[in-house]
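Why does residue order matter? Because the sequence determines the fold. Keep that principle in mind as you read this record.
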Amino acid sequence: MVDVVTEIEIRRPPEAVYAYAANPDNAPAWYSNIQAVSWETDPPLAVGSKVAFRAEFLGRTLEYVYEFTELDHGRKLVMRTAQGPFPMQTTYTWADAGGGSTRMTLRNTGTPAGFSAVAGLVMTPMMRRAMRKDLAKLKSVLEAGL
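Structure:
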């Protein structure tokens, strides 16, 4: 079982952080491992939407589809892999941190199988580093205009 949680404070209001981070089309701009995104269902994002991602992780190309299972505008987004090599649930939450800032939390949970199960022992610290790096990139992108 993998369960990794990271968070960051971004000097932008929750609505702005949500609008950018919850848009799958923006994922390649702030997720270092995500190479491409394509909609399997028509936008806009809603519960039941499906989005395909192509990523690089541990030297391998992974292709998977996330289904969005929960969407609480401006507060929480939950998506699960509908298909792919690593059953995963990703949760974003956003909270007002005061002073026009947002505390964003990113959580990934899943149970690796096959190749991923073998890599599971090293996967948690690697995922934590990657997720911290991704949130730092998101912060940089969103705060660049300040």
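DSSP finds three helices and seven strands in the chain.
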